[in-house]
Design a protein that fits this description.
By secondary structure, this protein is of the alpha/beta class. It is built from 13 helices and 13 strands. It folds into 3 domains: 48 residues; 65 residues, no CATH class; 228 residues, Nucleotidyltransferase, domain 5 (2-Layer Sandwich), CATH 3.30.420. A hairpin with a 7-residue loop joins β12 and β13. α1 crosses α3.
Length: 382
């Protein structure tokens, strides 16, 4: 019977045999089974009590060894820190990948003074919903020789800003969404046989059109701001940033290398200069390397949860979109503020060479096209 029973089953089975044998039964069963007398006696007490105090559990509460995360405080935080810059994968899926091997992670943790094995690291990663993947080429774009060095530069810059209690944000635009009773991927609970009816064809509805939510993610505060429109950086500072960081002297921004906030976009730099002049903040920008937009923190810390929150729900109006985005939360404390921007912004704005020459921009010695600081220009009397 022993191979087919768990620890509790063996204990109770042995106790039942001991009771059926009568006097001397515990000694006889202990000799035959190899179980300790104290173990058999606990089983006898459980059977005679005629009640199940531990339910489906095998042991009583508190039994067994303590978890390594309890015996070694800070182990989980150190593990997260090691793989923070290696998060990859589809940002709209809850599964995350790491590009570092378990053996290398275990070795790095041991250098920090933790007692860990490769097996323990693998178990902790699975509990945190990570899975290790071998290094391989992906479809994110060509590999730039300074790709890894740029990610290390971004992490160093962001950590320095947070330590100095200055704001560090990640910005990006979520993919455009049709407004109206269109099918939205995913499922939600409804009465059986009563799915919500939506349009068969995804043709844009006049008067509703599309929305492209622009997000700002505060890395240290774990808070998001989503502006359904554009010009979100300035609005985030006026609405949230200025109150949250009243003593700030710099603002650190991480952004993709392309799009409206790309490294080569003149309008992006001109508007950052205007923002710096208005707020007297130094704006430090660090762009992600080309072809790595999925690595942007806002993707897997904000946009992924927004997509999960509104899955299966048709985005029938701007009001519904704002409510769904604003209701997005996580167990780790994420909160999101959302607003709609109905201002009209002209397209095709040209920034002249003279305007570019007037920028107070200082480029970093390392990859100055990706890393630069825009400082406030000297202002005249009000």
């Amino acid at each position: 019977m022993s191979p087919f029973l768990d620890e509790r089953g063996r204990r109770l089975f042995a106790a039942n045999e001991a009771i059926s044998l009568g006097r001397g039964g515990v000694t006889a069963v202990a000799a035959a089974s190899g179980l300790a007398r104290s173990t058999i006696n606990r089983g006898v007490a459980e059977l005679k009590a005629a009640r199940n105090e531990i339910g489906h559990a095998i042991r009583r509460g508190g039994a067994g060894r303590k978890r390594e995360t309890e015996r070694q405080p800070g182990l989980l935080a150190a593990l997260e820190g090691l793989i923070e810059d290696a998060i990859r994968g589809d940002p709209e899926a809850p599964l995350r990948w790491v590009s570092r091997g378990q053996r290398n992670i275990a070795e790095a943790l041991r250098r920090q003074g933790f007692r860990v094995s490769q097996k323990l690291v693998g178990r902790l990663l699975r509990e945190q919903q990570y899975s290790c993947q071998a290094n391989r080429k992906t479809r994110e774009g060509s590999l730039h020789p300074d790709r890894n060095a740029q990610f290390e530069h971004i992490n160093t810059t962001v950590k320095a800003a947070i330590i100095a209690r200055n704001p560090a944000i990640s910005v990006d635009t979520k993919k455009k969404e049709l407004v109206g009773d269109f099918k939205n991927g995913g499922r939600e609970l409804r009465r059986q046989g009563d799915p919500e009816a939506v349009r068969v064809h995804d043709f844009e509805i006049k008067g509703l059109g599309k929305v492209a939510p622009y997000g700002v993610y505060d890395i240290a505060a774990n808070q998001g701001w989503v502006n359904v429109g554009i010009d979100a950086d300035r609005r985030w500072w006026q609405r949230l940033g200025k109150q949250r960081y009243p003593k700030a002297r710099t603002l650190t921004i991480t952004a993709d290398c392309g799009g409206s906030n790309g490294a080569r976009v003149r309008l992006w730099k001109r508007e950052l200069q205007r923002f710096a002049d208005e707020t007297s903040l130094k704006v430090t920008v660090a762009h992600l390397p080309p072809g790595t937009s999925k690595w942007n923190r806002i993707e897997h810390r904000l946009f992924a949860y927004i997509s999960q929150n509104w899955r299966g729900k048709p985005l029938v109006s701007h009001h519904v979109i704002i409510q769904l985005i604003g209701a997005t939360t996580t167990n780790t404390g994420l909160t999101v503020t959302c607003d709609i921007d109905q201002s009209f912004y002209p397209k095709g704005i040209k920034v002249t060479d003279a305007e570019m020459a007037a920028l107070n921009i200082q480029r970093n010695a390392f990859q100055g096209d990706w890393n630069y600081t825009i400082s406030p220009r000297q202002q005249g009397p009000p």
